[in-house]
Amino acid sequence: IMLNSLPSPTPHDLPKRVQQFDILPDSALMNVHEISLLSGKSTATLWRDVQDGRLPEPHKIGPKSPRWRVDAVRNFLSGNA
Fold first, then answer.
1. Burial environment of residue 31 by CB neighbours within 10 A (0 to 12, 13 to 18, 19 or more)
2. Which of 2, 9, 35, 81 could form a disulfide with 76 if both were Cys (CB 3.0 to 4.6 A apart)?
3. Backbone conformation region of residue 31, classed left if phi is above 0, alpha if psi is from -120 to 50, else beta
4. CA–CA dist 36, 23 (Å, integer)
5. Closest to 16 measured CA to CA, from 42, 43, 37
6. pTM assigned to the model
7. What is the DSSP letter of 7?
8. pLDDT for 33-80, tens place per residue?
9. What does the angle CA 29 – CA 32 – CA 38 come to, to the nearest 5 degrees?
10. CA angle 16-22-25, nearest 5°?
11. Distances from the Cα of 47 to the Cαs of 10, 27, 53, in angstroms?
12. pLDDT tens readout for residues 1-42
């Protein structure tokens, strides 16, 4: 199967937190997969953005649970990071 032949997700297919991004409080936390859906970038590209300083380092809420504050994600998505 060709990846390009797969339908792109409709808004109803997106996780509720991604659908409601505009109304989330600045202090809410997001994971890399949610940011990937919002930005259209792969998770690998997002980690390169962290390395290059375009996306801030995440908060570690567990050993394998990096999270970003919504205000940092908004700045990143607007290009103000």
1. middle
2. 81
3. beta
4. 18
5. 37
6. 0.82
7. P
8. 999 999 999 999 999 999 999 999 999 999 999 999 999 999 999 987
9. 85
10. 90
11. 25, 21, 10
12. 444 554 555 566 788 989 999 999 999 999 999 999 999 999
Contacts 24+ apart (CB under 8 A), 44-50: 49/76
- Within 8 A by CB and 6+ apart from 11, the residues are 19
- Given a contact cutoff of 8 angstroms between Cβ atoms, the answer to whether 30 and 73 are in contact is yes
DSSP characters over 12-69: GGS-HHHHTGGGS-TT-EE-HHHHHHHHT--HHHHHHHHHTTSSPPPEESSTT-EEEE
Amino acid at 37: L
Residue at token pair 């990143």: 76
